[in-house]
Design brief:
Number of domains: 3
CATH topology of the largest domain: Alpha-Beta Plaits
Number of helices: 17
Structural class: alpha+beta
Strand content: 15-25%
Length: about 550
């Protein structure tokens, strides 16, 4: 450190650490005149990589604390300036409501107070400016009045998305290298991508559990505590050791719940590959699909992160398109309108579209209440996935949903007859199957559709074709995976013709080939599932409540 900087001065890095403000906020406090401009000097200590760092008088800590206190009391930034005797000429085009911690003041240079120069003027930035940006924009700086844009794929710092089970759904290479210290995208099972499992198994620091980087785990634990009780910890991944459980429970007890802000940035210090302290400003945004984390280097101003994270629909759409394929246990329900081609031919076009729209509108709430996820399907039918979730029973959800769909379709058929004077019955034929396969997304314009690769969906579709008159068919394998209490709630069986009438023999399964005569035109159609043991779901009893 230069000789003229005495012990009565403090570096910009230490100010960020002690106050928790962002570098952009510090920069704007300087522009507003709340604190003096820094003196530039060589940094003290090996941990700071920058060649020159900004130093401030120690009195700025008191000034920043006073500003933070007044903001907590609900005072506007203009009021704070007035009370502190700071004369700041607010431009007319910037209303008072826009003057906040991170407000950009027109006509002021966007320089980093820690270095005294524009940190965004890097060679890599100039190269990207020449190449042009993408439609998924992150404004990382300005250069000669131009806006620098990058895509989600090219975020110039570590970033990843955690789903609601705190499993990594998307991650960029920088986050793998600098945060988790391992390749995450090749991990097949979502449970094994749980953020705490990755960190505690050596991903964050490659050290023993006792020397874990506490700040990283505490950061994520604050979001767990904001959403869940302590019992959730043991459900996060199956092979949790006693040592890990005790560590997480202790961390849960001493952590503070993350604020409910949908978007925020916080200061975090972790260790780099050499074991030295590595400071970050961590920006996060909370979406319905999960939480996006972006780790900004405190030595540079990461411009426009708020703009990126606030573009919710755009960010989520792009992240979901890039969601990693995951080996997932799931249940799939396929439902098709019986004789849809004949119905389409008989009805006027406007009536047919009205019918299809009513079916979708009627059924949608059932899928939503049983946690179904819409999947890709060709034609008028529906495909919904029920993913394994440690907070809900995906197998029972699929079966209960199918029975509810059947009841709703019967009511809709009756209403349609009365309203349209039509005498045909409407049936929704349903097939249900379970499996463990790779589950991912198929990007379509403008939406994202989920799909699974393998025979599980094909078998469910074939069972839907096999079903008639609104029946529900599922596999023996699926019901065998239910516990005894769950199976008792389900009435199921196989229809049989006795003495000229059809009766159902309950608690029985049958192979498909044994229920179709070889002379039937349908026999050859189902040869691919001929040996599959199946049964018809008749009803589901309500769950007993204690």
């Amino acid at each position: 450190m230069d000789k003229q900087i005495s012990a009565s001065w403090i570096s910009s890095l230490d100010i960020l650490r002690k106050t928790g403000i962002s570098r952009a906020t510090l920069n704007n406090y300087i522009q507003m005149g709340l604190i003096p401009r820094p003196r530039i000097a060589k940094p003290e200590g090996e941990r700071v990589k920058a060649r020159r760092v900004g130093y401030f008088p120690l009195s700025v800590l008191e000034r920043i604390e006073a500003v933070q206190r007044m903001k907590r009391e609900g005072r506007s930034m203009q009021t704070i300036l007035d009370e502190l005797g700071v004369r700041f000429p607010v431009a007319k085009e910037v209303p008072e409501s826009k003057i906040g911690d991170d407000a950009q003041i027109p006509g002021t240079p966007e320089t980093d107070p820690g270095t005294g120069r524009d940190e965004t003027e890097t060679d890599s930035g100039k190269d990207h400016l020449r190449k042009g940006g993408g439609d998924r924009t992150l404004h990382t700086g300005r250069q000669r009045g131009l806006s620098l844009q990058v895509t989600i794929d090219d975020i110039p710092c570590p970033a990843y998305l955690l789903n609601n089970n705190f499993e990594v759904d998307w991650i960029n290479p920088l986050a793998e290298e600098k945060i988790f210290r391992r390749t995450v995208r090749t991990v097949r099972e979502a449970e094994n991508r749980n953020v705490f499992r990755l960190l505690l198994r050596g991903g964050a620091s490659s050290r023993t559990l006792g020397n874990m980087d506490l700040d990283l785990c505490a950061l994520h634990m604050s979001f767990v505590k904001a959403r869940h009780e302590k019992a959730f910890l043991t459900k996060m991944y199956g092979d949790m050791t006693t040592e890990e459980r005790e560590y997480l429970e202790k961390l849960y007890g001493c952590s503070e719940a993350a604020p409910h802000d949908p978007m925020k940035d916080i200061f975090l210090e972790t260790s780099n590959l050499n074991g030295k302290a590595q400071p970050y400003h961590v920006y996060y945004a909370i979406f319905r699909e999960g939480i996006l984390f972006v780790y900004g280097n405190v030595e540079k101003i990461l411009k426009g992160v708020a703009e990126l994270l606030s573009s919710r629909d755009q960010v989520v759409r792009e992240l979901m398109k890039q969601r990693m394929p995951t080996l997932t246990s799931f249940c799939v329900l396929v439902a098709d309108l019986q004789d849809s081609s004949r119905i389409c031919a008989e009805l006027a076009p406007e009536d047919y579209f009205e019918l299809i729209n009513e079916i979708w509108k009627t059924m949608e709430s059932s899928f939503r209440s049983y946690y179904g996820t819409y999947g890709k399907h060709v034609g008028d039918g529906m495909v919904y996935y029920f993913l394994r979730d440690r907070d809900s029973n995906y197998l029972m959800n699929a079966i209960a949903c199918s029975v509810e769909l059947k009841e709703k379709m019967a009511r809709l058929s009756h209403e349609w007859k009365l309203r349209k004077g039509w005498f045909n019955d409407l049936y929704l034929n349903i097939g249900i199957n379970e499996g463990q396969e790779f589950f991912g997304t198929i990007p379509t314009a403008p939406n994202v559709e989920f799909t699974a690769l393998g025979d599980s969906v094909n078998y469910a579709s074939r069972l839907s074709d096999f079903a008639r008159r609104g029946s529900i068919w599922t596999t023996k394998n699926l019901l065998s995976k239910l516990n005894e209490e769950e199976r008792k709630r389900i009435r199921f069986g196989v229809p049989s013709h006795q003495e000229g009438r059809e009766v159902t023999i309950e608690n029985l399964y049958s192979r498909v080939m044994d229920m179709i005569s070889p002379e039937s035109p349908r026999y050859r159609k189902f040869l691919d599932i001929a040996a599959l043991p199946i049964t018809q779901v008749l009803s589901v009893a309500p769950e007993k409540k204690d």
